[in-house]
Amino acid sequence: MKRNSSAFRISTNKERSQLRGRLVKDKELFKQPHKSHLGECPICFLPMPIDENKSSCFNCCCKSICNGCVYADYKSSGNINCPFCREPGVNGDEENDKILMKRVKANDPVALNYMGRKRIDEGDIDKGVEYLKKAVELGDIDSHFRLGGIYYEGEVVEKDLEKAIHHYEKAAIGGHPQARYNLGCFDGGNGNFERAVKHLIIAAEQGLEESMKLLRDFFSAGQISKEELESTLCKHKAAIDATKSAQRDAGEAYSRRIGI
Fold this sequence. Notes:
By secondary structure, the chain is mainly alpha-helical. The protein folds into 3 domains: 50 residues, no CATH class; 84 residues, Tetratricopeptide repeat domain (Serine Threonine Protein Phosphatase 5, Tetratricopeptide repeat, Alpha Horseshoe), CATH 1.25.40.10; 60 residues, Serine Threonine Protein Phosphatase 5, Tetratricopeptide repeat (Alpha Horseshoe). A two-stranded antiparallel sheet has the order 1-2. A hairpin with a 4-residue loop joins strand 1 and strand 2. Helix 3 packs across helix 4, helix 5 crosses helix 6 and helix 6 packs antiparallel against helix 7. The longest helix is centred in the N-terminal third of the chain and has 25 residues. The chain is globular. The relative contact order is 0.10. The N terminus is likely disordered.
């Protein structure tokens, strides 16, 4: 039987094009980010801790400040002002919402992210997702991560794995360690251990403890070498150490004393 050589070439060229597309995408996806999506504290310029409890975001300017700088500012002034723009603190959810909405109307992506999450928590799913999508359009990495989780869980919107992976990948490329970890878990769960390890190594080297723990399990299962694990552990510790300072330690100690 004669083979249709023309159809065969078309099929082969299409497959080659798809393969090139995947390789280009993977090259971007697995590139080690220079820093996490959180960047640096705008006051002390040290890398921001991955743990969100170790920083505070002020609605007046939507700047995230490490708790060490928040504490240092409070200690020197005795007032709870924004350490960045010096706006005085306000009490009450209603007043805070008014301030936040000013930033939302100014198309601040951080404000859109916070308002989107708030609306979803309050049960206004459509409006919340709308805010997050707007933040994504403006380049907010955390909003990609939030949308990835929303589509993956399928609790407040219809489950859509393709959209979930798309948003997780965009967040991971932007330096979001938790999104990277989730991709590693997804690939590992599907038996794609080589890809899973790549994701988990990047997340661990950004300082994510959960990723380091899972890599130890992968080592026990023979999915990562001892040399790779030790190298990743060194970079993991270096990333965590880079976020530490005496000022931040003092802020944490103060928070523990007053029960925050």
